[in-house]
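Hi,

I'm pasting everything inline rather than attaching a file, because the server keeps stripping attachments. The sequence lines come first, and each chain or strand is labelled.
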Amino acid sequence: MRKVLLVLMAFAVCGLWAMGQQKPVIGVFISTLKNPYFVTLAEGAKAAGEKFGAEVVIYDAQDDAALQLRQVEDALAAGIQAVCINPVHAEAVIPAVEKANAMGVPVFSVDRDVVGGVRVCYIGTSNVLAAEQGAATLIRYLALAKRPLPWRIVILEGIPGASAAVEREQGFKNVFDPLIKGGAIKIVADLTAYFDRAEGYRVMADILATTKDIDAVIAANDEMILGALEAIKAAGLKVGFPDGIILMGFDAIDDAVNAVRSGELVGTIAQAPFIQGYWGVEAAYRYLVEGWRPPVGTPIYPPTGALFIPTPIAVVTAENVEQVAAITRTPPALPGTK
Amino acid sequence: MGSGESRTPFSIMIATNALRERIRVLNRNRVFFPILTLSALFLIASFVSPHFLSSANIKNIASQLAIGAILAIGEASVIICGGIDLSVGSVLAIAGCVNAVLMKWYEAPVTLAFAAALLIGCFAGFLNGVIVVKVRIPSFIVTLAMAATARGLTLVITGGKPVSGFAASFRSLAGHLGPIPVLFLIATSLAILWQLVLSYTRFGRHLYATGGNELASRLVGLNVDRVKIIAFTFSGLCAALAGVLLNARLNAAYPTAGEGYELDAIAASVLGGVSFSGGVGSVLGAYLGAIIMTILGNILNILKVAAFYQYVAKGIILALAAISLSRGAKFAK
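And the predicted assembly:
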């Protein structure tokens, strides 16, 4: 009992210390810190906090929408001044956004958008365009490898309902559908692996148990393709251009970039999670302190209707792999600022 | 200690012993620990942050504790009778998703969808109980299997996608009655009701007896099988209720809902004084345990403690609680 009190006393001390800070407080609500992509996003957010002198608090919702709602509620009650949210689900997190709206706290969605409530803007990648580029690159490599038609492709999708998953699926389909109709491609399997590496391994292993005749695998994020890579290697199959199974990822996390260097992946899409986190906090800070608003002429993001501030992307292949880190960790100026 | 050298007058010694005995009897269901911990936590929280006692925050806590509390009430009932239910998170998901699908895709009336969800929860719990009792497999394994099955069926039913956007009448379940959140009223009423059932009915006594010493209970002629089945069914019912209420709170149902919630329910029960050896603890204690966990999470969020440290903190508190409650046990499994 005494020990419990001691622990609680320790928290009391932390609380008194926390009360001493007077900078603008910006909450960054991340869907899960299990994915290195979001760890980089959090790093960008923290970097912006240091640069601009704002207190940035990072919350990890462990992919649970109910927990994210609780975190937003608690943060709002604690007096947070801006909400940068990376929603677990486009729909289930709407009550959290509405609560912030009711309290007059500005909401910025980062990397994924919510489909309700009022957001100042959505800062993210145009997943559809990026996925189209990834799929097109995959086709290019298949053509260069001179594989016999039809090319047999496996698609691994992300968490059903997450806007990123839905849009990347759309991008892949935009590129693949005409080719499927023309008989150039056969989709061996189109399954979800929940953006998770272990799931990617499991799903790929299950697919390989039914057939080993696969030309390429494209996944909606790197975690899944890396899991699939392990499953393919465990099945004893060759990987890489030009003789093995051609793999394409999305996100350009460190492990994936290393895999591109070593030839196991032919490519991945570098988004700029660092810049997304950075711009999210920067936009919130400038909104609160300088009255920044998304500039006139900012496009609308069709799936959700929010003002859309796209962040830079690049297709990472063996040719440009060394320059990627520099590009994606150097934030350009936020639109609407000099 | 010793016999002859005591300096206390005889009467005072008798009085303190009687008082101690009184307290021990009152505390036979170990409800003092959660009450004291909760009070201490409340006190410390109000010092720690000026935001804790704001009406917005208290209302938040009152809403947030409901789901965990309802699950803890069901879980505690099962643990008290000597079993364990690892399927509550998944049953929450399947009941919630069926409820959502019926309302959204089949435009069923709200009450019908509600009843259907509760029925599914009861059925899942009933299956758990029957398999444990008739097929004689440990509840750990049976409920684990049920968890996987329910989770899988949830994905099949929803196609893996969330279902959202419900009628305003349904959403009012997550609203307020005056200043008090409806969710809080539902959870508290359930806690009080079920505590009365366990304390003052024959079924309640049989539940404790079964958990305390199952063999003796059987030999004495209690229908242990029926008691266990009812306990598991009730746990399933609670999980389903929690699932429906979560739908109202989020205005969405999603197949990955409730993942890990069974562990929180167990933790809340332990914090509330329920013992894993069975036969000890109370449902009211588990309810208070859920409140403790909610407030803990709330304080850590208000203090902006980084996510990783929150897990560590909760784990430590749980261990401390279990340690301080374990005095007197001769061995643990």
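The mean pLDDT of chain A is 89.

If the labels don't parse on your end, tell me and I'll reformat.
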